[in-house]
Amino acid sequence: MIATALPRLRVLHVLHSLDTGGAERIVCDLARRRAAELISGAVCLDRLGSLAATAREAGMALFCTHRREGLDLRQIGRLASVIRRFEPDVIHAHQYTPYFYAALAASAAGAGRIVFTEHGRHWPDRVSPSRQAINQVLRLRRDRITAVCRFAADALRRTERLAGRDVRIIPNGVCCDLYDRPRRRDWLAAQLGVAEPGLVCLQVGRFHPVKDHATGLRAFARVRAAHPEARLVLVGDGPQRPAIEDLVRALDLADAVHLLGERPDVSDLLAAADVFVLSSLSEAASLSILEAMSAALPVAATDVGGNREIVLDGRTGLLSPRANPCALAASLGRLLADADLRRRMGQAGRRRARAMFDQARMHDDFVALYRQMTGGAA
Phi and psi for 161 in degrees, rounded to 5? Predict the structure, then answer.
């Protein structure tokens, strides 16, 4: 019997924007790597963002509905118009606000059920009785709800009262092979403009208050006395950059901290670094941590959100309480002082990333879910 190729599905993603971030990168990678199975589009509620060119290169059709702050009921009609124009087989909303508008617009446009993925939570995460009441209405739609980790799934149940036991966890994944690269220390020295990079701590993430770079900087300042050769490299950009630059100067770290901005060569930077650090106040399933583990880097991170679902404390890295520079400094100091510990934790992290957080598996799960929703075979 000759197998019949399954038709390509039309998938319309709904997001805040295509600014650089985890959910946005997942959408672009899914569209690019599964182009043979999916015809992908994206609606950005707020603005297109810095990954718009990447999305277009992946073959995505892009739309923007220019949402106003607060409740913007105009979004319902605008988004419904895009839905009618794109004619999706599946609508996939990323984060709560895009889901809220997508659900109302899908009802207005006569579209079917939606996939809603919760990628992360605000900090602090507060209960809103009015939102919980709205969510009881949204639950009547019986949309398919997924989360990137148990922490995010629990928040949907506890804080939002939006999902019952039917929420499905589809863990984030990365292309692990992309981060298995040679260690080019001379190249790194040239990027930093120094003769010798020394021991390099690397942090990758947007410059946003939730990432709490201040705690990372203060922790690094504490370990410099024991490790004067150490450097901290920050990759990313955002509204907190001026404040971060001011703190670097205030801590007298200008000669040891390097702000590289957004970079297309993060995989090479990871391969050349010694320790990965993440000082966030809140995380769900951090792609940056997964990338660092894929690059065989030990991780020093805060014990928040879904980090403990990824990092095995004492085996693939070290976890410490949020907003605690002393505790994070202790983790950094322990890793910087012990090359064998760094190697063992790094290799264990790489094995865990390959076994548990592979990008192809994540893509398989989403495509299979799309097929199930449209009545096709997985």
Answer: 50, 40
